[in-house]
Amino acid sequence: MVTVSVAWAPLALLLVVAAAWWAACLDAVVSGGRWGAPAAEAARLLRQRRRTLLAADRLLWRLGGGGLLVAALLMVAVIPLGRWTLSDLGVGVVWFNAMDVLVWALVWMAGWGANSTHALVGGYRFLAQALAYELPLMFALTAPAVGAGSLRVADVIAAQHGLWFVVWMPVAFVVFCACVVAFSVQGPFAAAAAADIGGGVLAEVSGVDRLLLLAGRYALLAAGSAFAVVAFFGGGDGPWLPDWVWTLVKTFAVLSVLVLVRRRVPLLRPDRLVEVGWVLVLPLTLLQLLVVSVVVVVR
Amino acid sequence: MGLNELLGRWAVRRAHVLVIEVPGAAGVRMAVERGLTARSWVQATSPAEADVLAVCGSAGPRMSVVIAAVWDQMPGPRTRVDVVGSAGVPAALNAAAVALLDSDAQRSDATSRLGSWTDTDDERDAGDENDDDHQRDESNGNDGNDGNDGEASHGDMDIGEDHGHMDMGEDHGDMAMDMPMPGGIGLAEGGQDRDGLEMDVLHVPLGPVLPHWPPGLVLTCTLQGDVVVQATAEIVDPVAGRGLPVTGDARRDVLVDRCDDVARLLAVAGWGSAAAQARQLRDDALDGVALPVCAAGVARLTRRVTRSRVLGWSLRGLCTATRAPGQDSSAAGSDVLAVELPDRLRGWLEEAAAAAAAPTGSLAGVGLTDVAFTDAIPPVALPQLVTGLDLAAVRLIVAGTGVVADLTASAAGARARWRRTW
Q1: Taking a C-beta distance cutoff of 8 angstroms, is the pair B176, B188 a contact?
Q2: Which of A188, A281, B45, B151 has the fewest CB atoms within 10 Å, i.e. the most exposed one?
Q3: Could you give the ipTM of this predicted complex?
Q4: Lowest-pLDDT range, A6-15, A53-62, B128-137?
Q5: Chain B contact set for A191 (CB, 8 A)
Q6: In chain A, where are the structural domains located?
């Protein structure tokens, strides 16, 4: 694994934005719109004025809105593109997990900062949802780390040479994908931004603030998909094509599947989600982890 | 073409429209929704999101006040269209698109708002104002150079600038005002919640402007967290009748009404694609698509909805009220039944299917209530249904209640009957 200079970070950001853009376009098309819909939406939001509210906690509000994109970029920092990586952290898997926990704070701040009831309820909802998905997500992430015997992302990829983790860790993979959708506040996990509370955390944002929030959500989905590729699909592992192409192809494929599948499921109510998350999904994930651990010990 | 104009042209391809349905204008609202779909425009969920305010029907005195407040919260560029008849929808939306691109008008609109706020702004906001003015000057200087289309004021429209302050009073008006606070907002009072813990109490009106919400309904909730501990409900500016579109065929009328109900409940349940499918069925029925084709569509939607275990899981345990079949509000001693929302949804779909399959002529034979006011639930019945539940459940229940209307003809009598029954 080659650690590249931090000067490449803009390229990483560009790739994240490109993937987010792709997800938004695909989403628009399958919803019956045109490919150009995200471009039109971006133009609209660039043209719209920003909003100021009475006694809003402006600092936290703006941080929450702009932070999602930053969190997505920080996630991507530990994900290798083929053999190049921005940061070959020894605890890369934990880093990714820490960044997704950062999303808790960001969405909450976006809801809190507006000083509006609907936005605040959106913030509450995200915390309730996060409580439901975070533990399953952590244990789903633990499975590849145990399988590789390392928290370094490069080692996780190397350990999959010959047999991708998705083959013998299917439960962890599915749970991880669901959690990616959940921390991107999308699809069935979009209760924090749902129409029934007037858009929730989105209720009071307009203009460029809204653009950042919406882009941040797609960017998180893209970053999560990229991590699914390195944790379960062998990263750049594949025939004929260069490894970096494989990483990109797989990432776009996982991202597309997530966009398509999440539309088929209605909203999951956060107040009822905790029960499912802890009583059903968490034990399943732990069982998966047990299987992985036994395999690692026996082998 | 300058950058501003280019952005504007792209932007109006996907304008977001806040649709406000005045009581008695259901048909106009449906027509506007269809107009939006045809243009690939989007229905906004909040004033902050919207570029266009579309008022369906003629607003009464109280509704007008609310609409003015909502208009004030829209960030701009913004425009308002009033649609009183379904026929005027295409023209109104065209006018909206033109108005959004009219830089001169948008600029003068923004300037006039700026003046009205600077007088009343507190110190902090006034500081921001100056800051923004500075930024705006800079951006105008840059934009002025690309005005090669000969329009003097082109490029002067301040884009993405922050001088809103449009939400004063609206969200906070109902909070306790006994303690002066920065910004003039009082602290929320405390109160014991359902677990006996001290928790802030907020008084929040839901409606009358809320997506997928019965027209004119205001549910004033006392919230602790997002749990409704107390509520009162009323209809703003009630009128007799709902103003449903008249197709000339009672079967289609029922089909349209039920599909609209289904679409609303599915939208609140957060299943956008299924809600769009239901709305498409409604529009097909309005367009005169053959009834067997509609019936097949209803069957497809029914399969999709009943197969979704997630939807059942979301709706389970939530109850709304309905009248016993065959009873109407004017009949003495009409029965009130509790219905679970999954059953309610299935019931609507069954009625839609039955209407589509019914033989020509009267619907009396298939046991359908007509789509007038007879199955309406009076607003006084709502508080009992929603107290003690969280906002998500409240929204689902209200969406599952169908028609909420002040039964103007016999309002007092109906209220008395509801009190007795409950």
Answers
A1: yes
A2: B151
A3: 0.91
A4: B128-137
A5: 270, 392
A6: 2-298
